[in-house]
Every structure is written in C-alpha cells, then in structure tokens.
Amino acid sequence: MIKILGFFFKLYLVVSLYLYVTKHEYYIPKPEALVKIELPESRTSIYTDKKISFKYSNSASVKLKDNFYSLNYPQYSSSISFKITPLLDFDLELYNFENSISVHEKQGAYINANVIKDTSENIYGVLCYLEGNKIATSSQFFITDSTNFFVRGGLDFDCAISSEIEVQNIIMKQEILKFIQSFKWVN
C-alpha cells in the first residue's frame, strides 16, 4: 500500500511540474521601438525683409509679428525664435543676455559659448550651446551690427530638453548654426 501511495505521489509531482512548466511559457521582452526621425529638407528658402535676410530649411515656416520672428519646425515640435530691437545700450543688452544664460547655468547646464564675427558683413555676436537635462533651451544667441540693431533669440522645444529628444536637439542645433551662418543685414 505504501508503494502504491508513493507511486501516486511521484506521479502527482511529475504531472504538477509538467503543468507548471507548460503553463508559464518562456517570456522574451520586446526591444524598445526606435523613433523614425526625418532630417529637415536640404533645400532652403531665403527670407528677406527691410532689416535682415537669412536662409532656412523648406521644412520650416517663418512667422513675423512685431519684430518677433519664429522659424517653426513642426516635425520636431521646435522653433528658432528671435527678436530685433534697436540698439540703444549695448552693455544693458549684453547684461540681459548673460543673465538669461546664467539662469540655465544655475540649473546645472554646461555652457559652450562660440563667438560670431563676420566683419565683412558687419555681424558680431555669441552663440551659446547649453548641455544638460530638464532645461528649457539648448541654444541661445545674440547678433548685432554694433550700431543699429540687436537680435536676441534661441531654440525652443515644446517640452524640456531630455534624453528622449536628444536626436532632435542635435538636428536643431545644426539648423540654428546654419541660420546664423546665413544671416545678413539688408542695407
């Protein structure tokens, strides 16, 4: 009798183990999906008004309202925005620009400043690339002709800069550099 109970007990264990193993299949998690990002069009258009001229990608649209310009890139949920003001006090404008940069520096952003200087076109300024997480912008700049106009702007995203939009951020930094390199004053 003990042999029969031992046999049924072993049979019960084997069947239970078999049912447990077949019930819980081996799970392989799916890899995270990669986001498909299209590059901005390489073809450019030229925007010109009474004060300035610049090139921009055909992927963008230009909007102007009260000397406030915006190059909107809908596929990246971002824009390059800038404002032209008369140059009344260069020291005050420079102070305000430095303060806007130092706000991001206090939030932990690393700042890489690049001097903009084209004496033949009478263009002077600074382009600051900001590196860090949870900051509002990754690029800010100012351009001046040193006598009449002061242009101040930056790169804006619809969300905070994070690792999730790193590729878009890199692309837009290239776009802002192309914009600044093509910037001209209209006489």
Question: What are the salient characteristics of this protein?
Answer:
elongated; Protein Transport Mog1p, Chain A; 187 residues; single chain; seven-stranded antiparallel beta sheet; 35% strand; alpha+beta; 3 helices; three-stranded antiparallel beta sheet
How does this structure look, described?
This protein is an alpha+beta fold and 187 residues long. The chain has one domain (44-185): Protein Transport Mog1p, Chain A, CATH 3.40.1000. It has helices spanning 2-23, 90-106, 166-182, and strands at 44-48, 52-57, 61-65, 68-73, 78-86, 110-118, 123-131, 139-144, 149-157, 184-185. The strands form two sheets. It has a seven-stranded antiparallel β-sheet with strand order 3-4-5-9-8-7-6, with helices on both faces. Strand 8 (139-144) and strand 9 (149-157) form a beta hairpin. The longest helix has 22 residues, at 2-23. The radius of gyration is 29 Å and the shape is elongated.
